[in-house]
Amino acid sequence: MKYGIFSGTVNDGTIDDVVNEARQAEKDGFASFWAPNIFGHDALTTLAIVGREVPRIELGTSVVPTYPRHPHAIAQQCHTVAAASGNRLTLGIGLSHKIVIESMLGMSYEKPVRHLKEYLSVLMPLSRNEPASFAGETYNVHGGISAKGSNGFGVVVAALGEQMLRVTAAMAEGTLTWCTGPATLSSHTIPTINRAAEEFGRPTPRVIAALPVCVTNDKAAAAERAAKVFAVYGTLPSYRAMLDKEGAAGPADIAITGSIAEVQDRVAALADIGVTDFAAVEFGATPDEIAETRAAIKGLL
């Protein structure tokens, strides 16, 4: 299992903060650095800058919403990031949520499974530097991209439900999960996507699991903080469904907390259920917690 770090500064820090964060993750020996795309800096633009400053670590988005971005346009942007970063980009995409797409952006969120199929039908050939030729119900795209210096980019999908996991297995390279605990990964996510990949004659998918992590002497305080910091995710239907599968009241119940040994044991156990990459979302509150959380994950490298 490979280990990566989720950026904590893309949304509330400066570009320099993100560069410094990625530089430290690379220095610490992590395999990947993941930038969320919420309502702060644009993740792909930020990673293009990071890629020029930080030379080796894999760079990924976690995740870019699809509905507001045409697949040809995002492919062009990704090829530019790939060229700028020495071909280290993995594009993580997701549908976002109905409340964001419809209520905030005024777009339709109808037929999300069809949307993902059509989106990937355009995006995947473009990601391989091949022209897209697709005529569907919502996308009709015939064209390619030529961005010198880009060898292409990987694509993973924030797929949670069974239908989304099957589409992902058939068309993309893997999935990136959030708010999905180990029991659900083991009983639902991993067997579903792996069975589908085998059925479709596809390679074993990449499974990138992102979970909150904090080394602490006060589990109760960490749980209370996690409940506040990650509260919104427990209210969004797709994440709520995964938490319900886990039997979790909220995101705090799937946070990995405790001593260095406890945290390391719980993280390392994810490899045994088929997780290929772990992406740590660090949420230490004190200098000691921050330092010890990073040390615990580094200790697994």
Automatic annotation (TrEMBL):
One of its GO terms (molecular function) is oxidoreductase activity, acting on paired donors, with incorporation or reduction of molecular oxygen. InterPro entries: F420-G6PD/mer, Lucif-like_OxRdtase_MSMEG_4879, Luciferase-like_dom, Luciferase-like_sf. Residues 1-293 form the Luciferase-like domain. The keyword Oxidoreductase applies. The keyword Oxidoreductase applies. Signal peptide: none annotated. Keywords: Oxidoreductase. PANTHER family: 5,10-METHYLENETETRAHYDROMETHANOPTERIN REDUCTASE, PTHR43244. This is Unannotated protein. It comes from freshwater metagenome.
